[in-house]
Design goal:
globular, 6-stranded mixed beta sheet, 6 helices, Muramoyl-pentapeptide Carboxypeptidase, domain 2, alpha+beta, single chain
């Protein structure tokens, strides 16, 4: 098993390297959303993200909402989504939480962890260079995607993960989102279909 050493602010972490076959599938699955978002601007800098907020195209996402929390590892300047994409995040997390409660899990401590939202082109390139399964022209750089961490659910609460899969399948069937599973890093990448 190969590992990459990834330098982060003030510490070093290790992650499994994404197998080539998995990365090829991610790139293939991403083509659909790339077509959806091809006419939208890419966020080259954080100033572009700020301009998208000021223009009303995007908004800062609260650290916590119904059924979700933003990971503390997400930099504040990247806690931004295009408006419809934020609505999709809210709809997914609320539908998931409702399904979880219907299945008998009523804990207040149950929530989805959103591990990634907006990215600049430069940050996306850094992820690629560090060996993450990040693609050129990512929907994250257009403010149209977010990632949900699933590794903990897969190991500790498979019923919660199954509820999430069921909700995401409904949104995919309604052609509202594209979902890409990234098993090695343990996330579902969710891209909204622009209105």
């Amino acid at each position: 098993m190969a590992f990459l050493c990834v330098k982060a602010v003030g510490y070093t972490t290790y992650m499994e390297q994404t197998p080539a076959i998995e990365f090829e599938k991610i790139k293939e699955d991403q083509k659909k959303e790339a077509l959806w978002w091809e006419s939208y601007p890419t966020m080259k800098t954080t100033a572009d993200i700020e301009n998208s907020i000021e223009s009303g195209f995007a908004q800062v996402i609260p650290n916590q909402g119904v059924g979700y929390k933003i990971s503390e590892k997400v930099r504040p300047e990247f806690r931004v989504l295009e408006n419809n994409t934020y609505e999709i995040l809210q709809e997914i997390s609320e539908a998931w939480l409702e399904r979880v409660r219907q299945n008998g899990n009523v804990s207040e401590n149950v929530f989805l962890v959103i591990s990634s939202l907006a990215r600049t082109e430069e940050f996306q390139q850094q992820l690629i260079e560090q060996g993450y399964p990040a693609v050129e022209n990512s929907t994250h750089t257009k403010l149209g995607a977010f990632d949900i961490a699933i590794k903990w659910f897969a190991t500790n609460a498979p019923d919660l993960l199954m509820s999430l899969k069921e909700v995401l399948d409904i949104f995919v069937a309604q052609e509202k989102i594209n979902v890409i599973e990234e098993p090695t890093i343990g996330v579902y990448h969710i891209a909204s279909k622009p209105l």
